[in-house]
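During the second half of the funding period, the structural biology subgroup turned its attention to how the target accommodates small molecules. The most pressing case was IPE, which had performed well in the primary screen but for which no bound structure existed. We therefore specified the complex as follows and requested a full 3D prediction, including the ligand pose.
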Amino acid sequence: MTANPTILQELPADLDRDRLPKHVAVIMDGNGRWAKKQGLPRIIGHRRGVDTLKDILRCCKDWGIQALTAYAFSTENWGRPLEEVDFLMTLFERVLRQELREMMAEDVKIRFVGNLDALPRSLQTEIERSMEQTYHNQGIHFTVATNYGGRQEIVQACRSIAAKVQQGLLQPDEIDEALFQHHLYTAGNCDPDLLIRTSGEMRISNFLLWQVAYAELYVTNTLWPDFDRREFHCALSAYQQRDRRFGKV
Ligand code: IPE
Ligand code: IPE
Ligand code: MG
């Protein structure tokens, strides 16, 4: 089933516009299983996953959600077969090139987080181009975690803070949560309010370890290529039923 952007164009009436998450993060899992179920190669699942992501991004914009962060490739995903990794890198590059015009038209500000230096040079070029061109867009903030690992992000933040201390630019007692946050790849983004994981796995898989401290978690058995606006509606309904206490009573 192709993602159908004509359904649920408007925010569903049962959702409270004032209590929507400002920032939704998604672990887009299950592309491989989706393909396997249809007897297709895993890469077809990744291709379908891109269609899903495009519609969920558009949906966030249509429904008034200000920021979406998607986990596209983890630091651990390099351990997959070379052909799959190559396919994904080429797919990212192609999609980015094809979608830039559309992102400009839809006022999307795209940002990539992760260890981008280790990505293929040609992909880095597309990443830089898309971030520069969409820099002033305000319609929605779209962050793509690519070669991203939460632990790696924390380690690199420690390193850059330590270097500043060593250079005498910073005193150890000046290191607080706000300063630390400022050294993460996601500096400047607000933390996700809602973290969705598709395909039923109840784990974080090294995603946004620092940032999800108080995110509401939502796991669905639906595989990412089948995740549509109806599913997203369910996730938002569940979110609106949560009591976010932040440690208080
Ligand atoms: C998620 O789908 C996409 C990436 C990690 C790039 P998977 O490829 O992990 O799909 P499953 O989990 O094997 O079904
Ligand atoms: C998490 O999915 C990474 C992305 C969605 C990019 P994985 O499929 O890599 O996670 P595990 O292996 O099930 O933990
Ligand atoms: Mg997976």
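Two results from this model are relevant to the next phase. Residues 27-29, 71-74, 77, 201, 203, 205 surround IPE (ligand 2) (CB under 6 Å). Helices lie at 31-37, 42-63, 82-105, 121-133, 150-166, 177-182, 229-241.
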